[in-house]
Design goal:
The chain is an all-alpha fold. The chain has helices at 9-49, 60-100, 103-145.
């Protein structure tokens, strides 16, 4: 029977706290993006129902681009949450492999850790950029409308 060795809390606690803060940040981006998507849905419904007297969609390019930015941000933020959480499980596996003094397993665990950290970083960057572009194009659409 294989024994799972305990890991000292001090070895991983600060890393988990840092990861938790990044996940909270991507959660806020997700929340704001979903709020913006809901706002676009409300705007589209008012136009479809005929409750709006003005042509809100004079320049559709900026509104559609802003909506696409928020949708991409939502997807990337969800990917970041998944990969960041998965990276921490890989990190714990690396620590356990170090305690077991198992070099072959340690190499596999480190490769998995670096892969998920890279995917986590890329998805967070995509989320940040697409949110910024969504906000930028939304403001441009408002300025064009006024």
């Amino acid at each position: 029977m294989k024994t799972i060795y305990d890991i000292e809390e001090s070895k991983y606690k600060s890393d988990f706290m840092i990861s938790e803060n990044y996940i909270k940040f991507s959660s806020e981006l997700l929340r704001l993006s979903l709020l913006a998507i809901g706002g676009f849905g409300t705007l589209i419904l008012t136009v479809i129902k005929g409750e709006c007297n003005q042509n809100v969609f004079q320049n559709k390019f900026f509104l559609i681009t802003a909506l696409a930015g928020f949708v991409i941000c939502s997807g990337a933020a969800l990917c970041h949450r998944y990969f960041a959480t998965d990276a921490m499980s890989w990190y714990v596996s690396v620590l356990r492999a170090q305690n077991n003094i198992n070099p072959s397993k340690l190499v596999v665990q480190r490769v998995g850790l670096h892969k998920t950290l890279k995917l986590s970083r890329i998805s967070l960057i995509i989320s940040e950029i697409s949110f910024g572009l969504g906000v930028l194009f939304f403001f441009i659409a408002i300025l064009v409308f006024v």
